Amino acid sequence: MMKLEYPSLVGSGELYLQVMKAICGDTQGKSMVDLMCYHAPYTPLLGFEKRTYVDIQDRGLDHKEEQPYFKEVDVLEYLSNVECPFHDVSICSDGLEHLEEAHAIFLIKKMHLYSSKQILFTPLGDLMISEDKHPDSHRSGWTPEKL
Q1: Residues facing residue 92 across a β-bridge
Q2: What is the pLDDT, as a whole number, of residue 6?
Q3: Rounded CA gap, 75 and 137, in Å?
Q4: What is the pLDDT confidence band of residue 87, given thresholds at 50, 70 and 90?
């Protein structure tokens, strides 16, 4: 596992999108699933032909034209479905930390099973972990060694 840190670099949506485009590569004719998508502010801009957005809460997607591709369901339930479709790329950006560790590991294993490429973004370490059961609370912390 490679660990890159840039303490003097401030993140931005533009930078995130550039990094995602570099990781995804050519998306023409390919499919992706955005797990725990929140408002999906950037994944619709990656150019995938087929798109699925999954979140336990329907917060409304930033790109309204993408709403028909949204599934309001618990990500663990979605990934447990025997008929869960295969995607070229599965993305879980700022979602892993919202699951308990055992559930997060399940998610990662299912991502490997249901996609050719997996992309995970999560805060480094035990950031804002709480006992709160609300879907927006952090329940686990991650380091490259742990992943």
Answers
A1: 120
A2: 58
A3: 15
A4: very high
- Whether 62 contacts 86, CB under 8 Å: no
If you write DSSP's letter for every residue of 21-75 in order, what string do you get?
HHHH---TT-EEEEET-TT-SSGGGG--SEEEEEESS----SSGGGGGGEEES-H
Closest CA to 61 of 85, 81, 34: 34
Does 126 have pLDDT greater than 60?
yes
Contacts of 4 (CB under 8 A, 6+ apart): none
The residue type of 105 is I
Write down the residue that tokens 């560790």 correspond to: 101
Encode 15-54: b = buried (16+ Cβ within 10 Å), e = exposed: eeeeebeeebeebeebbbbbbbbbebebbbebebeebbbb
- Tell me if the pTM is above 0.85: yes
Q: For 50-85, how does the pLDDT look when each residue is reduced to its tens digit (9 = 90+)?
A: 999 999 999 999 999 999 999 999 999 999 987 778
Rounded Cα distance, 14 and 16, in Å: 5
Neighbours of 113 (CB within 10 A): 12
